Amino acid sequence: MLNDIKKQLATLAQNDLLRHRVTLDSPCQTNIIADGKPKLSFASNDYLGLANDPRLIQATQESIEKWGVGAGSSHLVGGHMTPHEALDVKLAAFVGAERALTFSNGYMANLGVVPTLTGRGDAIFADRLNHASLIDAAQLSRAEHHRYPHNDLRALEALLQKSTAKRKLILTDAVFSMDGDFAPLPALQALAEEYKAWLVVDDAHGFGVLGKNGRGSLSHFDMPFAPNIIYMGTLGKAAGVSGAFVAAHADVIEWLTQRARTYIFTTASSPIMASALLESIKIIEKSDDKRAHLQTLIAQLKTDLDASPWQCLDSSSAIQPIIIGENKKALEVARALADRDIWVPAIRPPTVPKGTARLRISLSANHTLAQLKQLTTALKEIA
Ligand SMILES: *Cc1c(COP(=O)(O)O)cnc(C)c1O
User: 287-333 pLDDT, tens per residue?
Assistant: First the structure.
């Protein structure tokens, strides 16, 4: 068995698919120390620059004095503390849902929701570019798993029409994590209503960034919380901490509380996370200035690269990928940027389809226009 693993590792190395962890000797911010060297980072999903915000740090310090470090047990057994409860209530009110339930992270939220709502005899219709956690969730559910071409509404409708499944569930990222484009949520909801399907929306990259006061992608599209919509937002990206939540009709949330295995069979996250998040939601609500600056950066990046050989994908989110193609070449460009003290990760399969290795530029409201200029100047030099 060990020899097998050795061979597999060697194959990864041969195909430029071996990943290396960089160790940060600084907090998550735009100027970091990576493997001992200063770098300008475009690698985090900390879109509003809250991960190292003094107000969150203070809320956490106050919380630790009052609540200690650990929750001690799962939510249903005795680990559900006042900050956890307050966070559930706050998140529901913030996104405008009847109820919300927090999970330890987005991966576990997805793994909890999908198998709780569907099982054998049911069918899941999922966008081909969905996040890995949604793919795993669909497999865990044992429902039929149909994957439709990216954002292809006609293909989705054909599948829905043919299906005789008892329950149907449409599964999509709201902002696609490696392409940065949006799902056509209103059209997906129209199909969901027509074919009596659940619509599960993973808003890992929209929550905090899009919509009124950062309420997320549903708000961005002016969509009310219909009873068939299940909204998942993560709290480790724009919210700057860690965790995730599911917001939906009160009965759905009650059912998840009773049945979602990744909620029930795990220790509640630390109460200090919940306190930090309560502060974070308060800040998100008031951060129109940060969101406006982020939009300025996005527009400026496109303008700067317009006349260059580098073409960003058509994305209006903070995720701006440049498709390179070959793994080796993507690594070379990332290395050339690193030589200029800039860190942009090269994303390779299986995170993205084969032959579409890319640089994933991720912008934060903490980036300055001067820092952005540093990136685009370096890219032009490397071209
Ligand atoms: C990051 C991400 C997740 C996982 O969330 P975590 O809280 O990091 O576990 C789920 N879905 C999408 C689309 C993501 O980008």
Answer: 999 999 999 999 999 999 988 888 788 899 999 999 999 999 999 99
Q: Is 205 a catalytic residue?
A: yes
Of 254, 205, 214, 260, residue with least CA distance to 234: 205
Catalytic status, residue 75: no
What b/e readout covers 173-197, taking b as 16+ CB neighbours within 10 angstroms? bbbbbbbbbbbebeebbebbeebeb
| 238 within ligand 1 shell (Cβ under 6 A) | no
Name the residue with tokens 């070959």: 326
Each residue of 150-165: pLDDT tens digit? 999 999 999 999 999 9
Q: Is the distance from the beta carbon of residue 269 to the nearest atom of ligand 1 less than 6 Å?
A: no
Give DSSP secondary structure letters for 45-98: --TTS-TT-HHHHHHHHHHHHHH-S---SBIIIII--HHHHHHHHHHHHHHT-S
User: Which DSSP symbol is given to 25?
Assistant: S
The pLDDT of residue 185 is 98
Which of 84, 131, 237, 293 does the annotation list as catalytic?
A: 237
Q: Which of 105, 107, 171 to mutate to test the pocket of ligand 1 (most atoms within 8 A of CB)?
A: 107
Q: What is the mean pLDDT of the chain?
A: 97
State if residue 202 touches ligand 1 by the CB under 6 angstroms criterion: yes
Active site residue 367: no
Q: Is 364 in the pocket of ligand 1 (CB under 6 A)?
A: no
Distance CA 58, CA 234 (A): 22
Atom of ligand 1 nearest to the CA of 130: 13
* Region label for 114, one of left (φ > 0), alpha (ψ between -120 and 50) or beta (otherwise): alpha
Q: Which atom of ligand 1 is nearest to the CA of 244?
A: 7
pTM of the predicted protein model: 0.97
Q: Is the CB of 293 inside a 6 Å radius of any atom of ligand 1?
A: no
pLDDT in tens, 212-248: 999 999 999 999 999 999 999 999 999 999 999 999 9
User: Which DSSP string do the residues of 119-174 spell out, in sequence order?
Assistant: -TT-EEEEETT--HHHHHHHHHHTSEEEEESTT-HHHHHHHHHH---SSEEEEEES
